[in-house]
Design brief:
alpha/beta, Rossmann fold, 5-stranded parallel β-sheet, 9 helices, 5 strands, dephospho-CoA kinase activity, EC 2.7.1.24, ATP binding, Depp_CoAkinase, ATP-binding
Length: 200
């Protein structure tokens, strides 16, 4: 059974930068919940059909793909809609994460799950690592990355669980307010810690 590290953090906290370091420096298998979710909602998939049945044709782009921006706006505006979408996706994501972890060939694997804490997926992992960064940094990155206004970026942050709530669930914290060199040093220290834990 592969030792599983659950990696999480708020939006634009630098989760991808951290997983890239684990993967490129140490060849650790990364299992990404966002990538799994994207596969699950491709046209023809069961989740795609269920989302279309629940949210209607307005949830489609002219290409036939799901309109992720439309869905995001719907779930931010309506808690019931958010719950509905999560009830369709989360059980499928959970199952795929476990399937992929079972086939991992590295000494331990990292499950990158943005909603690890708030979606009650903690039981999937052996250890929780939170990538933490200052809120003003998150706001700036989200605006730049998604080309959205400051108020839209703030709304996204406000819709996530609090930083304190996430940090309270952490076994390990990566401080991503520093330089890339310092980030690499933190990743290196955790890599050796996880190797030790995985060998027990």
């Amino acid at each position: 059974m592969t030792f599983k590290v659950g990696l999480t953090g708020g939006i634009a906290s630098g989760k991808s930068a951290v997983t890239n370091l684990f993967q490129t420096l140490y060849a650790i298998d990364i299992i990404d919940a966002d990538l799994i979710a994207r596969e699950l909602v491709k046209p023809g998939q069961a989740a795609y059909k269920e989302i279309l049945g629940s949210f209607g044709e307005k949830a489609l782009l002219p290409t036939g793909d799901l309109d992720r921006r439309y869905l995001r706006e719907r779930i931010f505006a309506n808690a019931d809609q958010k719950e509905l979408l999560e009830s369709i996706l989360h059980p499928r994501i959970r199952q795929q994460l476990l399937n992929d972890a079972e086939h991992s060939r590295s000494p331990y694997c990292i499950l990158s799950i943005p909603l690890l804490v708030e979606s009650n997926m903690l039981s999937l992992v052996d250890r929780v690592c939170v990538v933490d960064t200052a809120e003003n940094t998150q706001l700036f990155r989200v605006q730049q990355r998604d080309n959205i206004s400051a108020s839209s970026a703030q709304a996204i942050l406000d819709n996530q669980c609090s930083r304190q709530f996430r940090l309270a669930a952490a076994d390990d914290i990566i401080d991503n307010n520093q330089s890339l060199n310092e980030l690499q040093e933190q990743v290196e220290a955790l890599h050796f810690r996880y190797l030790k834990l995985a060998s027990v």
